[in-house]
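Sorry, I am new here, but would you mind making up a protein's amino acid sequence and the tokens describing how it folds?
***
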Amino acid sequence: MKFTISHHIDSCPHYDIFLERENHLETWSVMEEKFPDLMDGVPVACAQKSPHRKIYLTFQGELTDDRGTLTIIDEGEYNTEDTGYLLHGLKMTGRLFFLLPDSGIPTVIFSCNKQ
């Protein structure tokens, strides 16, 4: 299956993690200021968003209705593992884990090797 990580610049800049599913994209959002921590393997809060259309796997540019701009920062393939996902991107490779700790705040961990 394919994945894309996109930088979404709008009134609240963030990064979207899109994971391809059979007929949609599972989507998670990480705030822009937390993304460097995520790339360093630090657990950061994330938000699961509603499923997106598969067009966002390859879409870059202006979104309609003044919803900002998307820029793909990495893309590739992923495999599902028991505890998360193994991503093989063009720029980075690593394991992605989504957790729901006792705090109830969804958290993402990315153990990344930048290429």
About this structure: The radius of gyration is 13 Å. Residues 2-114 form one domain. The longest strand covers residues 69-80.
